[in-house]
Design goal:
two-stranded antiparallel ribbon
Length: 272
């Protein structure tokens, strides 16, 4: 659904990412690593914007690995620790459900530990069988080798448990392109409005309206960073009624106005 917008402080965080094997591209946005052992610096905060995707993160602490799942329907502001290596998988919308059978509603809007939290995750944790042996091996590998190992784990799952043929992935991708309304897309693919809403809520975790809002936010963020276009023109290109509508919708999701976002991000880029 979205193009990757990297964190503003990638060098500081030692952030690296790897695009997935083409067999995984319908469901995986990227594999990523972050942090350096013994790299003693002040923690940094970063915003994680909603795009209907989900994250599986593996923090390789010295005592035991910390595995978390997160599906954010709102912007999350997190303090990032650069002293402990962390690897992860960023799933596209419906990717965690298609590849792992996970229901986004079970781990929404915060980071849930896979190993010991939430009864509602207990059944779903069975779907992560085979992950722990992979995690244990990560300690012996560098970050790039670790990302390849995570990719191999998903490819093995894809081979042994192919995802059911679902039109939801097609619908999500089309909504992200902002060319047709969800209702038009659903009708084209034979879904009633109620059926479409029910399937999206179960497999993607959000409503059709939320998907449109996320797609507009993502397109607007790209426009604010990659162009010098005035806000009014970006608003119209992203499907907002006018600049006032754009500013209100953007601020509701991103917790800052489009102008403030552009100023902050460009300032970080120029300082780098």
């Amino acid at each position: 659904m979205t193009d990757l917008i990297l964190p503003s402080n990638t060098d500081y965080l030692n952030f690296r990412h790897r695009l997935p094997d083409r067999r995984l591209t319908p469901w995986v946005q990227c594999f990523w690593s972050m942090g350096t052992p013994g790299h003693l610096t002040e923690p940094r905060t970063e915003k994680f914007y909603p795009d209907a995707g989900a994250s599986l993160s593996i923090k390789l602490s010295s005592s035991r690995p910390l595995i978390t799942l997160c599906f954010n329907r709102r912007t999350l502001i997190e303090t990032l620790d650069t002293t402990t290596p962390c690897l992860g998988i960023r799933f596209k919308a419906a990717g965690a459900h298609s590849l792992l059978g996970l229901l986004p509603e079970a781990f929404a809007d915060t980071y849930h530990r896979v190993d010991n939290e939430l009864e509602e995750l207990s059944v779903q944790k069975l779907r992560l069988q085979g992950l722990m042996p992979v995690v244990e091996r990560l300690y012996q590998l560098d970050s790039q080798q670790g990302l390849r190992l995570l990719e191999t784990w998903l490819l093995d799952r894809l081979k042994s448990q192919p995802p059911a043929n679902s039109r939801i992935t097609t619908i999500v991708q089309a909504i992200g392109e902002l060319q047709l309304s969800p209702q038009q897309l659903g009708a084209t693919l034979g879904f009633t409005r109620r059926t479409l809403e029910r399937k999206l809520k179960r497999e993607v975790g959000v409503t059709p309206g939320q998907l449109v809002a996320y797609a507009r936010l993502n397109r607007a963020r790209h426009g604010l960073l990659a162009t010098t276009l005035p806000l009014t023109e970006i608003a119209l290109q992203c499907g907002y009624y006018d600049q006032a509508h754009f500013t209100h919708a953007f601020q509701t999701l991103a917790y800052e106005t489009p102008a403030a976002y552009r100023k902050r991000k460009l300032s970080q880029i120029y300082k780098a």
